[in-house]
Write a structure and sequence with these properties.
With 213 residues, this protein is α+β, with helices and mostly antiparallel strands. It has a single domain, classed as Aminopeptidase (3-Layer(aba) Sandwich). Helices cover 35% and strands 25% of the residues. It has 8 helices and 9 strands. Strands 4-5-6-7-8-3-9 form a 7-stranded mixed beta sheet, with helices on both faces. Strand 6 and strand 7 form a beta hairpin. The protein is globular and about 45 Å long. The chain starts with 6 loop residues before the first helix and ends in a 7-residue tail after the last helix.
Length: 213
């Protein structure tokens, strides 16, 4: 795909199974990625370890959604090496304004300590990046996100790549062919990230699940 990055171009790219990256925060060039193997998080296989379960049940944090999108994406970019440049920040903020991008935030004493953001189309959530400023904050964010996606009708949680960290939480890797079969079906289904009927059940979120690989 070519041309200047726009929200419409982003949505078309995600529907086709590709996503943009930059070489660095200061590099203006965008390139498109279509991995041979794709990371996904099966919504019924998220692994809650004993320590993560304890951290969730400690309840020394607050969860919110879609209240600080730009702050979350900027904090995700605050690392020595990042693929998030100014153009990506601008366009994902525009997607957020259009209701196609979302974030989940973790707070402690009114301080943002963790978060995750991504794009939703149909019943697919495309996870983009997450950050943590306190131990377990990004894992807590991911646990709450998985529960929200599962309970609001999502069928596919795309994590783009499989990292050791995501694998330890239950993510798996599938072929591009299998991914696109799942993608093309799920984008035509219906889910609602902001469903008013959804309320997080902390006990269910903290419930331990055996990790199998």
């Amino acid at each position: 795909m070519t041309g200047q990055l726009t929200p419409d171009l982003l949505l078309s790219a995600y529907r086709a199974g590709i996503f943009p990256m930059a070489e660095s925060a200061t590099n203006k060039d965008i390139f498109w990625v279509d991995p041979k193997y794709r990371g996904i998080m099966p919504l019924d296989k998220f692994h809650v370890s004993k320590s993560l379960s304890r951290a969730i049940m400690k309840l020394d944090y607050q969860i919110s959604v879609n209240t600080s999108f730009e702050k979350v994406i900027r904090m995700c970019a605050e690392r020595p090496e990042t693929w998030i440049n100014r153009e990506i920040i601008t366009n994902y903020c525009l997607l957020f304004q259009r209701g196609h991008a979302h974030c989940l935030e973790v707070w402690n004493n009114e301080k943002l300590i963790g978060g995750i953001y991504g794009v939703s189309i149909g019943a697919v959530f495309f996870g983009e990046s997450m950050f943590s400023k306190k131990s377990n904050a990004s894992k807590i964010a991911l646990a709450y996100l998985v529960n929200r996606l599962k309970e609001t009708g999502f069928k596919l949680f795309d994590t783009q790549f499989l990292t050791p960290h995501l694998a330890s939480l239950g993510a798996i890797e599938i072929s591009k062919t299998k991914y696109k079969i799942l993608l093309f079906k799920a984008v035509e289904e219906v889910a609602n990230f902001c469903a008013s009927s959804y309320s997080p059940d902390v006990s269910a979120i903290a419930q331990r699940r055996a990790h199998t690989s």
